[in-house]
Amino acid sequence: MKPQVWTAAAAMLVMAGCAVGPKYARPDVPMTPEFKELPPQAYKETKEWKTAHPAQLIPEKWWEAFGDPQLNHLEEEVAAGNQDLKIAEARFTEARTAIRFNRSAKFPAISISPGLTSTRWSPNRPYFGGNTPATGDLLLPFDVSYEVDLWGRVRRSIASAREAADASAADLATVRLSIEAELAFDYFDLRSADTEQQLLNDTVQAYTQALQLTTNRFDGGAAPKSDVAQAQTQLETTRAQATDIAVRRAANEHAIAVLVGRPPASFRIAPAVVRMEPPVIPVGVPSQLLERRPDIASAERQVMVANEQIGLAKIAYYPTLLLSAALGLEGSSFATWFGWPSRFWAVGPVLAETLFDGGRRRAASEEARAAYDATVAGYRETTLTAFQQVEDNLAALRILEQESGEQHRAVVSSQEALQLFNNRYQGGVDSYLQVITAQTTALGNERIAIDLTRRRMEASVLLVKALGGGWDVSKLSQPAKDGTVVSVQP
Fold this sequence. Notes:
By secondary structure, the protein is of the alpha+beta class. It has helices at 3-15, 69-81, 83-103, 153-219, 225-259, 286-292, 294-315, 334-337, 360-426, 432-466; strands at 109-112, 115-120, 134-148, 320-331, 343-352, 478-479, 485-486. The protein has one domain (27-107, 160-318, 359-484): Outer membrane efflux proteins (OEP). The protein has ten helices and seven strands. Residues 1-16, 32-38 and 480-490 have low confidence and may be disordered.
């Protein structure tokens, strides 16, 4: 072989180690208009926040912090029965399969196409030099083709597929966290309905006794008929409210059934009044949020995919080197088909380069860069939304805790007022209207107190969700310093 050929081959092998296109760098987080500052050292709403001890991240089974065995059991059923989660798992499997598909380009493709033909020619065909009336051909060819990855097209395709799979894995974690949070959300709403149902049932019983007292006073001539009517109206109104609670509870029970993958007709949660108290949630610092939210990780992986697409679009400007070979056996009969003289082979490289495409490659490159800019903006928007959700729920918990204390004092005061007006009514000092007013105020305050507890529990769940639950980015593949991706998954 001539020295020039060896030189060209060596140059191609050296170039095969090159990778055309930009290296990946994580986009800046837009904490300031200039995007130059890191996230703040603490959330604005954590100035009066109770620090969790020991200071640690949220555990993977975060719902156990609420101390409710029924909730723990339901959350465990989600992984096995929720259909939305199964959809996300199937999409993740699909994305992982794409890695193997793209990785196959690292190896040569080998094909075989044996053939057996027999042809009878017309003796009147317009050829000179004699005619053979019939011919036969037995062919057993093997074809080998391989694209030399000169510019990193195959490597970028594999990296893009792996990053897309990581994004799908993060999406799966986002779906799982959302379903777990929705289940806890519905469960606490159901338990709040149980507590409110118990309150209204007790109130109906108390109002029934009040109606009996008023009726006795009317029969004894100590109270007018209007007092009886007012007591009857108050009783029936409260009884209707107690009945209406069943609608809300049934809706929550049915929603939970679907979340755990069971038909509502065969699913039931026994009514129970449970003590609900929000746990202390380890919040951490804002910079940790970038590593703990699966949706942020997914958005960043999409940026990485878009970065690979820019490289692939740029590679289209460079030539493609294909190595191909064909070998096999060809004979005119079975007797000669496998003989040594029947062998044939052909081998050689092909270098292909597009000289003119009417601007197609430039358009593809500009499209890839625009898509990259869009994914960067999406990543930054996802990050901003995450910070907002944390701040919102921190503020909600802080404010609701203060409001809950104030509401507790209002409940105690309204109950004292009701007792006073009852005593004054029985002593003939006040009319029954004051009792009705005090009853309405006391019941309203107690229902508000129950609702505030529900809102605090739900805000705790939403805060856990906003912080990423027990997930962190170490569960995905980790980018190396050179911009490539090293998978840590099997």
